[in-house]
Amino acid sequence: MPVTSSVTFESAAGQASGFAARPGKERPGIIVLQEWWGLVPHIKDLAGRFAAQGYIALAPDLYHGKSTVEAAEAEHLMKGLDWGRAGQEIAGAVKYLREVEGATRVGVTGFCMGGALTIIAATQPGVDAYVAFYGFPPAGAADLDKIAAPGLIFFGQEEQFFSVPDAQAFAERQRKRGREAEVIVYPGAGHAFFNNERPEAYRPDAANDAWRRTLDHFGRHLRG
Question: Are 140 and 83 in contact (CB under 8 A)?
């Protein structure tokens, strides 16, 4: 069974914290980035699922102790997020996994807001692979040309919050540069199709396929 605990780590923005699930030392690591709800049980559960697959998983608390189940409050929290600071804390989390937890390689994954932050995180050094779920940063949020790590981006066909064409155009540019990038769009699914705690959005077939692809992607690029 994975060992779980709260952790603190240093970042360029100061001390940060998060939730860690560990199968042992000297394993590949995965950063798990929250949706706009915050570091809620669903994200901690996902960290545990990655740990059960043999990864040291760390979910940074980007809202610093705040979370919600109300959409209006979640929107307020996301709008109040300092994205520059969040990026620094994610970079600190990557460094923590490598230097403290002994992670051999590090991947990043995230959902909704965390999906957009995943793409931004992939521009930073130390990220070996990334998988973004239904999120993509707006134009100018980061220099995406810096991304060399291989990536997957998932959307439902009925996505209403982020631009699927922008993500597809990015992936096409990456492939022309010889960099691995793929956008997968699931028919009949919408935003948050992977979140099994939201029955109105959850689509089991799409979620199961995305999980299989995620484990394959990280397995190829983090365990080599």
Answer: no
Give pTM, 2 decimals: 0.97
Any idea where the domains of the chain sit in the sequence? 3-222
DSSP annotation of 138 reads P
Closest alpha carbon to 94 in 33, 140, 153, 40: 33
Phi, psi of 110 (to 5 degrees): -165, 165
CA distance to 7, 52, 132, 155, per residue, from 205 (Å): 34, 21, 18, 13
Query: How many CB atoms within 10 Å of residue 52?
Result: 13
Q: What is the largest CA-CA distance in the chain?
A: 43
Taking each helix axis from N to C end, the angle separating 83-99 and 113-121, rounded to the nearest 10 degrees, works out to: 60
Distances in Å between the Cα of 202 and the Cα atoms of 137, 175, 195 are 23, 30, 6
Pick the CATH number of 3-222 from 2.60.120.10, 3.40.50.1820, 3.40.50.720, 3.40.190.150: 3.40.50.1820
Q: What is the pLDDT of residues 75-114, one digit of tens each?
A: 999 999 999 999 999 999 999 999 999 999 999 999 999 9
Q: Which amino acid is at 128?
A: D
